[in-house]
């Protein structure tokens, strides 16, 4: 009898370890709020081969959870063979069902080719009228090669995909010299009082990445908060490039709205900033945190000197293809 009970116990244990819920938990990170909870749930989706979102989004989640009381779930591109984070795995981001009960989506993906059962959670969320924060390559978040169901969300679809339909622009081109010229944020004086810019001075936003080209004007419901000045070098104090590249300057931060099939209208924040090293700057972190508050309709709680300090050790790697650290699992980033 004892031997049968032992084998039953082992069988149950094996079945439990294969549970979809448990497998999803292993492939994601969940940060419960510290201190006074805000009662809001944020899902952050990483999945790009170049800008190290697998490093930046866990850190942003820690800041939002530890200092601001949000529950944050971070999802990753996962190699199904060993469960490691693998940005080159274009067709697998497990755990997207977390969006079904989320209050805010933060996305930084690039050319993902997700299966319909995963893509459905993203599209259902978008259509629900809930807010979206899109960073850097989210303008070309998806390249759905084999999905007639969600083909219109591909970056190169006639509608411009998720990028143009939801964020306001899809992938066009680099503006300036990629990897050689950095970006300085120039605040739009007409939007200087916008809540998202609270605590951020002109010239404080900066990124080692180049500016992205954007078709002008942006959609009529868009408001440009920050323009990107192309600098001649990879230092924040590099002089601006002379000539037409900065005349006019391209938008790098804007807000707009999106109305999905539900008929509800969501707030949308979009920025072409968003490398892992951007989070080393106080102003860049403040921009991303303020954007989350605004998107959630909580702009009255934004403070000029709110805590946006890094949480724990954070040593991001420079952007670049094939630059991710191999063999890392989500649990290693807690």
Structural overview:
The protein is of the alpha/beta class and 334 residues long. The protein has helices spanning 2-17, 20-26, 53-66, 116-127, 161-167, 282-295, and strands at 28-31, 41-47, 71-75, 104-109, 132-135, 174-175, 183-187, 206-207, 211-212, 223-230, 250-259, 265-271. The strands form 2 sheets. It has a 10-stranded mixed β-sheet with strand order 1-3-2-4-5-12-11-10-7-8, with helices on both faces. It has a two-stranded antiparallel sheet with strand order 6-9. The chain is globular and about 50 Å long. Mean pLDDT is 92; it is low at 8-23.
Offer a concise description of the structure.
Helices cover 21% and strands 19% of the residues.
From the helix content, strand content and strand pairing, which structural class follows? Answer: alpha/beta
The best one-word shape is: globular
Which fold name is given in CATH as the topology of the domain at 23-174 and 252-318? Rossmann fold
Major sheet characteristics? 10 strands, mixed
> So, CATH architecture of the domain at 23-174 and 252-318?
3-Layer(aba) Sandwich
Strand order of the largest sheet: 1-3-2-4-5-12-11-10-7-8
Instruction: Please report which band the strand proportion falls in: under 5%, 5-15%, 15-25%, 25-35%, 35-45% or over 45%.
Output: 15-25%
Mean pLDDT: 92
What is the helix tally?
A: 6
Helix content: 10-25%
Q: Please identify the top-level CATH class of the domain at 23-174 and 252-318.
A: Alpha Beta
User: How many DSSP-defined strands?
Assistant: 12
Q: What gap, in angstroms, lies between the N and C termini?
A: 42 Å
Succession of helices and strands: HHEEHEEHEHEEEEEEEH
If you compute it from the alpha carbons, what radius of gyration comes out, rounded to the nearest whole angstrom?
Answer: 20 Å
Low-confidence stretches: 8-23
């Amino acid at each position: 009898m004892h031997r049968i009970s032992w084998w039953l116990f082992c069988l149950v244990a094996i079945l439990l370890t294969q549970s979809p819920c448990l497998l999803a938990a292993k492939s994601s990170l969940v940060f419960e709020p510290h201190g006074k909870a805000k009662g809001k749930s944020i899902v952050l989706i990483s999945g790009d081969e170049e800008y190290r979102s697998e490093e930046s989004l866990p850190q942003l989640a820690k800041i939002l959870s530890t200092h601001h009381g949000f529950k944050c779930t971070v999802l990753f591109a996962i190699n199904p063979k060993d469960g490691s984070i693998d940005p080159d795995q274009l067709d697998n981001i497990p755990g997207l069902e977390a969006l079904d009960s989320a209050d805010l989506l933060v996305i930084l993906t690039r050319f993902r080719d997700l299966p319909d059962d995963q893509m459905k959670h993203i599209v259902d969320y978008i259509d629900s009228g809930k807010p979206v924060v899109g960073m850097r390559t989210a303008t070309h978040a998806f390249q759905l090669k084999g999905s007639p169901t969600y083909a219109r969300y591909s970056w190169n679809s006639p509608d411009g995909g998720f990028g143009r339909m939801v964020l306001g622009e899809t992938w066009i081109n680099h503006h300036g010299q990629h990897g050689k010229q950095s970006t300085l944020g120039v605040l739009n004086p007409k939007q200087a009082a916008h809540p998202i810019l609270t605590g951020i001075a002109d010239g404080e936003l900066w990124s080692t990445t180049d500016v992205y080209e954007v078709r002008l004007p942006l959609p009529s419901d868009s408001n440009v908060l920050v323009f990107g000045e192309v600098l001649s070098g990879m230092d924040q104090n590099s002089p601006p490039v002379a000539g037409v590249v900065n005349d006019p300057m391209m938008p790098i931060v804007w807000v707009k709205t999106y109305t999905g099939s539900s008929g509800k209208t969501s707030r949308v924040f979009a920025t072409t900033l968003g490398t892992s090293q951007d989070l080393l700057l106080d102003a860049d972190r403040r921009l991303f945190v303020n954007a989350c508050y605004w998107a959630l309709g909580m702009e009255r709680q934004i403070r000029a000197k709110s805590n946006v300090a890094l949480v724990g050790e954070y040593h991001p790697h420079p952007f670049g293809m094939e630059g991710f650290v191999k063999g890392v699992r989500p649990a290693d980033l807690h």
